[in-house]
Each structure stands twice: as C-alpha cells, then as structure tokens.
Design a protein that fits this description.
Elements (H helix, E strand, L loop, with lengths): L5 H32 L33 H19 L5 H29 L6 H34 L2
Helix pairs in contact: 1-2
Keywords: Membrane, Transmembrane, Transmembrane helix
C-alpha cells in the first residue's frame, strides 16, 4: 500500500467541504429565487405583473426573502486555491521511487491478471481453453469412428448384396 500525502489529503478534504458548501448555497439560492418569484410587483393601473421598461422583464419584490450569504463559500474556495498553489510550488521528493514502484506493481498485476484469465478460461471452459480443445478432439475422434463404421457397414452390405445377384 502506498502512503498518503498529507497535502493531498488536506486538498481532498477542502474540496469536499467546498462541494458541500456549494450544494448548500445552491439550495438556499434556489429557495430564495422561488420566494422572489412568488412575490411579483403588480401594476395598480392594469392589474398585471409590472414590467421594467429598460429590460422588459417582470419586476419582483424581494422584501420578505433572505438572500443566501456566499462569504463562507468564497472563503473556502480561496483557502482551497491557496492550498493548491502552495502544493504545486513544492518539488516532489519521492516521485522517481514512487513511479518505479507503480510501474513494478503494474507489471506484476498484468502478469497476475493474465494468469487468472487463463485459469478462469479453463474453469469456465471458454472457447480456446485446454479442456474445450481436448473435448473437441475427443468428439472429432468419436464422429470419425462413427463415419468409418458407417462406411465399412455400407461396403459390407453392398459387397454381400451385389455378390449374391
């Protein structure tokens, strides 16, 4: 097993916190938008929802709605960016040994996988496995013997029936 890097663990936990805060903020903002849309400003002259003349959009009142605070989310994002930038500036000390270890493990796993594939192929008697090939050889021998027996019987029948005529 490989050792975990404390910087990577810190970045992972900070990323997880940012995602959680972002989801919470999005939920709160969605609730805020739904609250605002339920409070349109009515034009007293027409009785319809008031439109803004400059943008031609409906006007809503947000007096009774609380807009979510994004300062905590922004602070967590800043902390994550700082952690990432300080980690990127560091030079890894064990990159070569880690890479060699990873390559060696990869090669061992490939050979183990090939060995397991071969054993499973024989166990499940898949096409191309040794038991399947032996069974096909035995079946072919049986069918060839049956054909030779039919040929010999036919020749004997023909020989004895035509000889008596």
């Amino acid at each position: 097993m490989s050792k975990s890097n404390p910087d990577q663990d810190k970045i992972y936990s900070q990323t997880s916190q940012v995602y959680t805060s972002l989801q919470n903020y999005n939920s709160a903002y969605t609730s805020y938008l739904m609250c605002v849309e339920k409070q349109p400003v009515i034009d007293p002259n027409t009785g319809h929802i008031l439109r803004d003349s400059s943008s031609n959009k409906f006007v809503y009142s947000s007096a009774n709605c609380n807009k979510p605070d994004s300062t905590q989310l922004l602070q967590q994002i800043d902390e994550l960016q700082t952690s990432i930038s300080t980690m990127v500036g560091q030079t890894p000390t064990n990159t070569d040994s880690s890479m060699n270890h990873t390559a060696q493990n990869y090669n061992q796993m490939l050979s183990l996988r090939n060995e397991l594939d071969t054993k499973l192929q024989e166990l499940y008697e898949m096409n191309g496995s040794i038991p399947v090939i032996y069974r096909q050889d035995a079946d072919s021998a049986v069918y060839a013997t049956i054909l030779w027996t039919i040929l010999a019987s036919s020749l004997l029948y023909y020989f004895f029936t035509k000889r008596n005529l």
